Structure formats: C-alpha cells, structure tokens
Amino acid sequence: MIELLGIDGKVRGSSPMSLDKVVDALRLMLLSRAVDDRLIKLQRMGRVGVYGPVHGQEAAVIGSAMALDPQRDWIVPASREHPAMLRHGLPLKNMFATYMGNFDAAAVPDGVRLLPRQQSIGAQLPHAVGLAWALKLRRAGGVVAVYFGEGASSEGDFHEASNLAGVMRVPLVMLLINNHYAISTPVHRQTAAAELAARAEGYGFPGFVVDGNDLLAVYATTVDAVNRAIAGDGPTLIECRTYRMGFHNTSDNPKEYRDTAEVDEAEQRDPIERVRRFAIREGVWSADQEAAALNEIRSAIDTAQRQVEELPRPGAAAIFEHVYETLPPRLQQQRAEALDDARPS
Amino acid sequence: MINQPELSILEAIRSALMDEMSRDERVMVLGMDVGQLGGVFRVTRGLMERFGPERVVDTPLAEGAIVGASLGLAIGGMVPVAEVQFLGFTHQAFHQIGPQLARYRFRSRGRFSAQVTIRAPFGGGTRTPEFHPDAIEAQFVQAPGLKIVCPAFPDDAKGLLLEAIRDPDPVLYLEPQRLYRSIRGPVPAGDHTVPFGSSRLVREGKDVVLIAWSAAVHLCLAAADQLAEEGVAASVLDLRTLVPLDVAGLIAAVVESGKAVVVHEAPVTGGFGAEIVATIQQEAFGSLDAPIRRVASRDTPYPPGSLEDYFLPSVRRIVAATRATVEY
What we know:
The complex is a heterodimer of chains A (345) and B (328). By secondary structure, chain A is of the alpha/beta class. In chain A, 46% of the residues lie in helices and 9% in strands. Chain A is built from 13 helices and 7 strands. In chain A, the strands form 2 sheets. A 5-stranded parallel sheet of chain A has the order 1-2-3-7-6, sandwiched between helices. A two-stranded antiparallel ribbon of chain A has the order 4-5. In chain A, helix 1 (19-44) packs across helix 12 (287-310). Chain A is globular and about 70 Å long. Chain B has 328 residues and is an alpha/beta fold. In chain B, 35% of the residues lie in helices and 20% in strands. Chain B has helices at residues 9-23, 47-51, 63-75, 94-102, 104-107, 137-141, 154-166, 216-229, 247-257, 272-284, 315-327, and strands at 6-8, 27-31, 56-58, 79-83, 117-122, 147-149, 171-176, 184-186, 200-203, 208-212, 234-238, 241-243, 260-267, 293-297.
C-alpha cells in the first residue's frame, strides 16, 4: 500500500504536492465536510430528499481530483464525489440544486469537463472508457478520471469497461474508492480477493493500492497515472482504501450492521486531521486561518442554498424538456395535457 | 435507371455506411467482428479497408461495453454506429441502452446527448440458434429518449439509416435478417433520407388494412396477394418507425376501410401491436367496423428453428385473420 502522509502529519520524503496546493486541498476538505453537515441538516428538515455524505473519503476524492487539469481532463463521477466535481468547475449552487430537487439548476454548465452523477452503480465505467477513447481518437490530449466504489467492482460493467479500456489502451484513470461498505455489505462479502487493484493485471494494465485517507499518496499515485495516460501508456487502476465514516445515505442506519468500535478506530485515521497537522507543521495553516476559512465556507454555503431556494420550482413542462432534441407529436400532446392538469383549478 | 441501382437491404445498409463515413469523419463503426471479417452477415465488409482500423473497430465480446462506450465516444465528439450482433443479445446491454444512452440528454438537462446508432439484426424464419431471432423491439419502446427504426425495403434501409446516424438522439436500427439478401429494390443514389415518424402505405386496398413493420410487412404483402385472389382488397401499412409513431398516418390508413389487422413477429401479449390497437381505438373508434385482430408469435420462449413455424406469424394465419375481420 502506498503511504506518504502519517497520522502524525509527517511526510515520508518530500511532499509531492506544493504547499499552496495542500492549502487548497485542505480548504476543499473542510468545504466538503461542511456541505455534508448542511445537507444532512436540510434533509432532516425535509428540504433535501436523500443525501450520501463524503465523510471520511475526502482525501481519496480530493487528492485524486487535485492531480487533474480541469481545462484538459474529464471527470466521470459516481455519486459521492462532489468535492472533485466542485474543484473541476461545478458551481456550489448547482451542487445544492442537485440535492434540493431542482434538476435544471443542477446541470453541469457548458465548458465544464464533467459528466453528471451516476446513480446506477458502475454504469458510468463504459461511458468513461468511450470518452477516453474519443480523446485518443481526436488526439485531444487529456485523460478521463472515473470514480466508482468497491461495490461497483462486482458489476459486469466494471469487467466489460476495464477489459475494453485495456484493449483500446485509452487514457483512463480508474479511481476505485474502496470505502469498505456498499450500503451494509462489507468488502469481504464483495470479493474474496485480498486486493481489488490486483484485478488490473488481468486486464493488462497496472493497478495500485493506496492509503485512501492519505491526501499526498492519492495525489502522487494519480499524478503518475495521469502521466502514463498522457504518454499513451493506457489505463491505470488505483484502489484508494478509505472508510465511509458516515452512513450510506440519510435513509441508512449503520449501527444495524457495524460496530461503533470500528468507526471510532477509523476516526483515528481521519483524512482531514492529518493534512491539518501537516499544514500546521509546514507553517502554512493555523487555527486562525481555519476559523477564517470556515467562515468563508459557511457564507458560500449560505449563498448557494439561498440561490437555490430563490429559484422558481420546476413545473410540469420540465419533464418534457430534453427527452429528445425535438419533442415528437405524441409527447407534445402529453405535454399539453400535463400543463393543463397542472393548472390551478 | 442509373440513379436507382437495385440493391439488397444488406447492400443498401453498407452503401449508407460508406456514404456517411465519407461525408462525416466523426462517424465510426464498432462492434464484434465488424472490421476484419466485415460482420457475421458481411454488412460492414470493405469498411475497414477503406476507413482504417481507428474508424472501423473490432471490439471485445461485450454488448454492454460496446453501447456504453458509444455513449462516451459520442460525448467526446464521435458519431458511433455500434453493431450488436443480434438484437436478442441486447439484453446484455439493456441497461446501457435504455437507462443510460436514452436518458443521458434528460439527465444532463441537455448538456450531453448521445448521437449513437445501434444496429441490430433480428427476426425469425432463418432457423437460427436460440437468441438470434428474438423480436424484442417492444421492450425498448419503454425507454423514453430512444428512437426505434425498422426498415423493410432497401430504399428505406438506406434512408432511415442516414437519418438515424444524423439524428442527435440515440436510435435503435433494426435489420430484418431474413430479408438481408432476399429482397432487392431500387435505392436512390446520393443523399436519400427518410424522416422518422412517417409510415408508408406499400399496397392499397379498400377492404382492410394490414399494419406491420420490418419482415412482417412482406408476410402481409404475400397475404394481400392471396386475399386478392379471393376478392379481398387489403392495403398494407409499413410503420417504418415505432418511436416516433406516425399516429396520423396510422389513423388515416384505418379510417379508409374501418378494418385493421396488426402483424408482428414478437409474442402477442404486450407486443407493440397492443399499442397500435389501443391507439386506433382511442383515435378512430367511430370509424371501426370490426374488432382489430393481431397476428403475432405465440407467448412461448422462442423455439428451436425446426419448430419456429408453429411460433411465428404466417401468411396463412394472416389470411385467416384478415378474412374473419373483413367478414365480421
């Protein structure tokens, strides 16, 4: 397992990430956790449908995203990578709109190299392969980074996509976020293999296991994978071993299937705490800076939430938009009926 | 005629692919055995030699990845024409076709769309092994965002394929395998497209209309020939596309005689024929002079080729159902 940043905040050798970037990453980690807190609160108030927090996985998601160039590379997310999406250019407002039920406002803006969240486990993997294949065919430069969990590695789409990626030698970085739980199913019920990264060999490309709670190790490993892809050497599978410290989503109660002792133990490996220690040790972070950063974050979240709340609610017409580029006659008729139904009587 | 060479359906499809790949360098063909071999039916023969292995790609044997990667290719600026070797194997790709490809425009609120054509041969009558003949087109009708196209003649094979490749939305293009080489007809040279949602009255008759698509259209034409000998004049309507459906053309053809028979190769229960019947009774109930009958396959699993004649609709069954409808 690749490890660089210890729990004590000390780095083995020199940091692969510049200190400026470390501070950016730390801010993003704090933002991610604050977004978790806010959206869980809003869910409990009935203003958000269902929310799956990133809690515990920040280093894996953010460390990998920091290795990408938003002007050149694409991200194909699963559903728990919003800090990576924000870093890549998704406005915070759009992220809040996703969970607050306004799907038009949630859309990925033009020019942002990001596919929408994927709710069907593993289904995004073949899309990512195709997109990376297109970059290669069009000699566009850049790579595709695709996120998925250890649960998705059991899906057929994972196998089909990995195999095709290897055969076509596409510029793809496969980020397997092993958070040890697919809802209630622990990783040892997902696979009998000691490590998931080893599967890469079967597809003809390298795989690495990295401490997914170690920002620097995830970053360095992803940088190497991006460089391989850019050089035309094809895909890389990176298994980021992390731990889902929170629940699967707001409808889930992890106490029904795992010991609190296990969660307490995971707390000791909190991915944010060790970056904080490192940054303080390097003299680029302080309690005052953190307090100021948290204030800015709170204000940005308040603004995003308010902007979404102020938007008009989507109406009946929205369900007929973007079904096809041009609405066929049958749907035009149904649209007229739906608008009529929705009229206040 | 020099502008209207006689082509088979297979040749018409190949010529459309050749034309479109020459016209638009974003167009690429991918699938199992489509390159070196030219496809198991040789539809894509000659394409790899002409356009090279980057644009005509032999893929691993994985339907889900062929379709799923096509979505990514489209997002990345290519225009993929994916071949699934037989429609019966699209079940392995069903999730990538319906919930993914077809919904991507909707899910992304118009940011991304999937200009992808999926070609798939289907239909019985050629004694193929299990899964190769299954007519499962109706299963895709419940995948909003997808268009479903099923030519029965060489000119439509070309015109609908060019339309499909250029359509900004995903299209499932169904090829009648039993007709690939058996039907020849004039095909307009050059840029010939057929708009989706336009049915075609391929035979006129005042007593009853037979409604079908793909290979079943030719069963209906044969049945109409026999019925003509008995003095029954049947018209035949080829729907050409199931989604979008030409409701106006369908109703116009039905009100002419007030009598209709729907014929398809899929099992009868829940087949697209049920949708046709429901549409007709809602839009033209007052014009109907007889119950609408369906002639379709039996509600059994697809049997071995040696038994498929007991399963599939036949000219004899169509003639009997039409006679009963006319005499009602």
